[in-house]
Amino acid sequence: MSRTPIDVYRGIVQTRVGDESSTRINRFVDRFSGLEFAEEDLSLQFSRMIGLGCRLVAYLDSRYVTGLADLTISIDLVDHLATTTKWWKMTRQDPSIVLRPRVRDPRELMKSLSEVSFDANTKRRIADASDKLSRFLEEQEITWAEKRKEICDAMTSTWRILAGFICRSEGRNTTIEADFERAYDVLRILLFYVSLNDFKAIVAVRKIASSPKLSKAAAIKISPGFERLLETSMASRLESKNREYLSGLLSSSPGSCRNILTNSLRLLAQLQAVKSKQNRLEKENYEPIIRKSIDHMQEMGIPSDFVHNEASVLRIFKSLKPAEGLNDKIASLTRRLEGMIVDSTGNRDFLLQYSKLVTRLISLVLLIGIGTKNTKGKIHDEDIKRGLMHVQRLISA
Questions:
Q1: Span 75-97, pLDDT tens digits
Q2: Which residues contact 322 (CB under 8 A, 6 or more apart)?
Q3: β-strands 40-41, 36-37: how paired?
Q4: 41 DSSP β-pair partners
């Protein structure tokens, strides 16, 4: 367990939902007013769940008043749970949030909770869990009865909502005990195991996919002269020479891994072109654009020689051996990005027009993830999440 339960509960109790966060929460949940769920107002229950998420994120970030960034993460987490499937399969052995593709409209599922009824056994299990938590908090000298009730109510509403999501995802209108058991485990993992960067990565993916700058970058044309210089560059030669080290990741994203350096440089150059209001990358743009791209990477902590020093390239390539299960997670992330980019642009054919965009994007995430890794060894999910956060900041700059 990465965090002690009582420390987390104390931190949540001591963390206050900021006034602006509270106003925004009320505005968000207002759409569910008038709908009943588990004999209480659905909007109230979502308010409790989102407030709990806000306070957890603020606590993990060592703050005791929530801000809008915490609210964004909390709402994006609810959106993720409402739009994807299989999240209830997360385990304490692998407590990472898998960034799976969206499969449904979140608002429809959230509103459909009003159609869910709780069987007697599920009701009893939730009530027992809430009572047990209340006694535990009292035993741990959290003496404010009002605070104990507040956190127990928030936990109860979250268990109900998670169980309801699972129930509806499996095509049922009545819960079973297994729904609560899975909801209980998931909430426990979110509270005590999932890292802050995991929560932040959910937001990073959405911001990357919905960024107008990214869609503009995809449309930047690369001239034959610019492309020729890149294809004959040291980065390209080093990719070809050391391709044997990339085989481990080829199954999940072959194009991204095979040309990880040159793909990253292409996207960085396109982003730089958007910033300088160019429509096309010409041969004469190559040196200044690539130099600026390398400078951006250096600002993130990646050595500036990563594209021409064989020792640096080998270090990166040798670290691209994936940890167990990572290939599947990268494949899921790729599909999630594809779906969200299409939704954001409103153009179903966008990725047919710009078919290399996501490949280049994944290349950049991988390169930054491994380039900013402090330890040797395989690339892990946490490296991908860190890479996503860096790419999001890069695109937003």
A1: 999 999 999 999 999 999 999 99
A2: 248, 249, 252, 330, 378, 379
A3: antiparallel
A4: 36
pTM score above 0.70? yes
What six digits make up the tokens of 279?
């429509």
Spell out the residues 6+ positions from residue 162 whose beta carbon is closer than 8 angstroms to its own.
Answer: 81, 88, 182, 183, 186, 187
The values of phi and psi at residue 374, to 5°, are -90, -15
The two three-digit tokens of residue 82, written as one number? 């409402």
d(CA 142, CA 9): 9
DSSP 11-59: HHHHPBPPHHHHHHHHHHHGGGTT-EETTEEHHHHHHHHHHHHHHHHHH
SS3 397: coil
Cα(169)–Cα(179) distance, rounded to whole angstroms? 11
- What number of residues does the chain have? 397
Q: How far apart are CA 12 and CA 37, in angstroms?
A: 25
Q: How far apart are CA 228 and CA 375, in angstroms?
A: 35
Q: Which helix (DSSP H) or strand (DSSP E) does residue 98 occupy?
A: none
